[in-house]
Every structure is written in C-alpha cells, then in structure tokens.
Amino acid sequence: MKNQEKPTALLQQQEQELREAVDYAVKIATAAGASAEVLVTKVTGLSVSTRLREVENVEFNNDGELGISVYLGQQKGNASTSDLTPQAIKNAVNAALSIAKYTSPDDCAGLADKELMAFDAPNLELYYPAEIDVDNAVDLALKTESSASDYDEKITNCEAAFNSHTGVRVYGNSHGMLQSYLSSRYSISCTAVAGDEQQEQDYEYTVSRDLNKLQLPSWVGENVAKKVISRLNPQKIATQNVPVIFANDVATSLIGHLASAISGGSLYRKSSFLLDHLGKKILPEWFHISERPHLLGQLASTPFDSEGVRTSSREIVDRGILQSYLLTSYSGRKLGMQSTGHAGGIHNWLVTPNLSGGLTALLKSMDTGLLITDFMGDAINLVTGDYSRGAAGFWVEKGIIQFPVAEITVAGQLKEMFSQIVAVADDIEYRSNVQTGSILIENMKVSGN
Questions:
Q1: What is the pTM of this model?
Q2: Which of 46, 50, 368, 388 has CB atoms 3.0–4.6 Å from 411's, for a disulfide?
C-alpha cells in the first residue's frame, strides 16, 4: 500500500469545497426568505471482481450529489444537482423554491428543532486512509478466489471482489449548523458454487472502515468453501412445528423487522403490528437492545442523522419493554413527539446475549429442531406481523447438526416470535448495524414435504 498522506489531503480539500457549496446553497435560500437544509455525500472508490481466476471487472467511481430542501412556511420543495459550480447550485435552489410555491402546506414540514442539532458533532474516527492501486486490489481478490477454489475439488465456480471506498458527508441548514466528516469502507467478498447435478451456492465477506482490520483473503475463501460444501445433498423434512435457530448473520433480519415496526413512518400511518406498544412488553424479560451511535470506527456509527439531529445512546428494549420509537422530525410531529435522530436509519444496535458458548451451546439448548442459515425472499406483513420466508439450513438432533435441508418455508407471527425467543448466543455478528448473536425461537411452523 502507498503513502496515506496524499489521499487524506485530497479528501480534506474536497471536504472544505463541499462545506463551502453547502453553505452557499443555504445562504441563497435564506436570502430568498426560505429556511433550508442541504446534504451532500461524495463517494470515491475502486471495485475489482474476479471469476475463474481471471479479472472480470475493474471500476472506479466518483459519485456525489447535493440535495436541498427548502421550506416556504410549511410548503416544501426539493431539488438536487451533481454539478457543484456556483451557478448550478443557485439553479438547484431556485428550482426547489419554485416547487415549494406549488406544494400544499403541511403542518408537520420543516427543519428539525434547533435545540436537537449536532453543533458539536464528535469525531468518531470513521476514516482510515489506505491508497490502494489496481494491482493491490486484484491481488486481494485473486487470493480470495484461489483460497476457495483450492479448498476442495467439489468447488466448481468462484467469484471474488475487493472494494475500497472513501467518502465525505456534509450537512448544513438555516439554524446555522454546518458539520461534516470523512469515512472509509473496505471489503473482501467471495461467492462459491459446489456440486454436480444439484449445485449449492454460498457467500462470505469481511468488511471494515480500517483496511488493516479486514480478515485475510484466505479466511474469506476457506470459509465460503466450507459453508457451500456443508450444504451439498440437502434433504427435505416433513411439515412440523419445531424450535428454530436463526444463525447470527440472518438473526439480524429478525431484529430488523422490529426496527421497521417501531419506525415513525410505520406508526403514524398505522401500518405496524407494534402500534401503541411504547412502554409495553414485546420481548422476554431478559431481552435488551441498546443503541450506541458513537462507537469509534464502527460501520453504523454517525455523529448526526440526515436531518442534522445529533445521535445519542439510548435503550431500545429494556427488560423486554419497548423504550423508544425511531423518529424523524416529520414522523415525530405526526405523533406529537420529538425526533430521536433516526432520519436515515439505526446506529449500532447491540443485542445483549444471555447464553455463552456460541452457536454450539445454542444447538445443545435447542436439542432437536432447525438451524436456519439462509433466507430466500419474504412475505412479511408489517401491519399484522404475519411472517413467512423460504429458507435453508440444517436439521439438528441432540444438539448436533445431522444434515443440510433446503426448499423449506418457516412461518409465524412476529409478535409471537419475539415473545418465544428462548436465548441469544454470544456469537455476535459485528458486520451489521444490528449486532446480535444467533437467536433461538421456541416454536415455529416449518413447511417441507
């Protein structure tokens, strides 16, 4: 890898230019009698993919767009531009002002409250520079693919990729807020196919803001090879009601459904099965979810949301009781509440485990049932909580994996599924904005033969 000073200096220069562009846009709107907020994100990166030990794709990207929202009273107009010259910015602001004049007033529209702004946004160490050229990137991808292909002769096809992206995020508004930060993200991934007549496919990856904290290419390649080989010759099982384990990397989606159900948009539209559940028990008494948006260097950390609202640590679920909704300024006003800093998503949800020993201990706790490692599609009704997904995984007896299973469907009702969570293991998945271990649910319907 090359010297890191050059990319850092260039990115800092770009950050200053974007700050000036945002400030300019806000000033034009303010001079026209409007309040305004401006968000710009600029991402630069390199992506390399390989297949069958040959370079398949090399792509450089340099993408960014300035988006502006203006408010004439309670009338809102939006516009955007990827051209950041002064005239182009002025044209975008004028376009937003013109649109606002023709929109219907909305008494919930407007900037987030000034007292919620992140005027003192902390440095969360989200940027780790590493100047990587194409040769470096190709080498990492080819090593990953080779590790998978060479692991076992049953592997028939492999694809690997390396991605390096750095970005600048700048937000400003008429409250006088102007904040920005740099970020980086690096990843290595690999997809492998194994088998002859009936082929199986699996995927593995490593991701971090710091290139030096990525797993080795050999780890990625060997892991995906082990995973796909373990899925060969799957069997079908009879339709039945059994305990089910969601492996940690798919358990994140289960907690993600909870996040969707308590988001302000779902709540004020009355399209959530957890409507009016704030302060009520929705999970077992031992269950706890914390949100920690200021963890240094984490993938889902952020000092402020996309409305400039400062993010803060909070308990989402404590002793099984729902402690907080996830609100933007608009949904908060709709519900007569205050923004919680969730415009743009959630920030480092930490699910507290209650079982040590990882997946091995969780399998023993279940004894007999289904371990789900992959989902295909979904049919989830957020209004009723009805849940149905195609799945694949492994059949377990006496705490030991017996054989792979495929072409099954698991079904339930999310509120009941939450209440029937028996345990969360300590095999935490750290690559997601939801950090949870594998989750055991006491009883679900599994449809097979």
A1: 0.93
A2: 388
